[in-house]
Amino acid sequence: MPIYYACCGQCGFCFAPEVMTWSLDEFSARIYNDEYAWVDPDYVEARPLGNAKNLQAMFGALPSFRHLDYGGGNGTLASVLRESGWNAVSYDPFVNRDTPLDQLGKFDLITAFEVFEHVPDVQQLMADLRALLAPNGVVLFTTLLTDGNIRPRERLSWWYASPRNGHISLFSKKSLAVLSQACGFNFGSFSAGFHVFFSAVPEWAAHLIRKA
After folding, report:
1. How far is CA 96 from CA 7, 44, 53, 73, 178, in A?
2. Domain ranges of the chain
3. Which of 6, 20, 62, 186 sits 20 to 30 Å CA-CA off 14?
4. pLDDT given for residue 44 in this prediction
5. Residue 78 contacts by C-beta under 8 Å, 6 or more apart in sequence?
6. How far is Cα 96 from Cα 69, in angstroms, rounded to an integer?
7. What is the CB-side half-sphere exposure of residue 152 using CA atoms within 13 A?
8. pTM (2 decimals)?
9. pLDDT tens for each residue of 77-131
10. Using CB atoms within 10 A of its CB, is residue 132 exposed (0-12), middle (13-18) or buried (19+)?
11. What is the DSSP string of the chain?
12. What is the DSSP string of 106-119?
């Protein structure tokens, strides 16, 4: 079935209106089914293992903070980090449907690797992150920016705009800045794909955030 995107002329946020109305069961049936690993083979193991290695390089083997991997899928990233001594938990709205957010507690570090582009309700995502983040906590997330990749009145050919992969929300740098401001966060980007939300800079993350 053809999926079309709409794009905000003010901030550059692009989204797939039809998909935004799907239920979790519809997402599971149409996108996150048994064939999903065919279109995103790194999802199962390679990506979480790589992200775990990167986090350990950033913060060391035994950090003192609580960590939540939001949108963690099968939980591989959090599991690998726990084995190395991290206090890490995984939560995924599609996987952990019966887990109330208020049972998870607060976290000093929340990661959301390749999550934002999959979310149909961005405002709900931000509300979840705000509810789960401890005071002076940090959200590290990855999503590729549309800047230079999507242009008004041009046919959409960017590989990242892929409904079959579940990429239904596509962000420009301006749209992330607008979103963060509306939710009371500061925003920074380390690259076109790696970003941070924070309110204040905790000592354990100062070495990283000053690069954003």
Report:
1. 31, 17, 25, 9, 29
2. 11-209
3. 186
4. 83
5. 67, 69, 72, 86, 88, 89, 90
6. 12
7. 7
8. 0.95
9. 999 999 999 999 999 998 999 999 999 999 999 999 999 999 999 999 999 999 9
10. buried
11. -----EE-TTT--EE-TTGGG--HHHHHHHTSSTTHHHH-GGGTTHHHHHHHHHHHHHH-SS-SSEEEEET-TTSHHHHHHHHTT-EEEEE-TTT-TT--GGGT--EEEEEEET-GGG-S-HHHHHHHHHHHEEEEEEEEEE----TTT--TTS----TT--GGGT--EE--HHHHHHHHHHTT-EEEESSSSEEEEESS--GGGHHHHTT-
12. -EEEEEEET-GGG-
Helix axes 122-132, 173-182, angle to 10 degrees: 50
Q: What is the layout of strands, in order, in the sheet containing 14-15?
A: 6-7, 14-15, 169-170
Region 11-209: CATH code: 3.40.50.150
Assigned token pair, 129: 């992150």
Angle (nearest 5°) at CA 159 between 157 and 162: 95
The two tokens of residue 186 are 């500061």
Sign of the torsion formed by the C-alpha atoms of 119, 122, 128 and 133: positive
- Token readout for 173 is 């740098």
Residue 91 burial (C-beta neighbours within 10 Å; 0-12, 13-18, 19+): buried
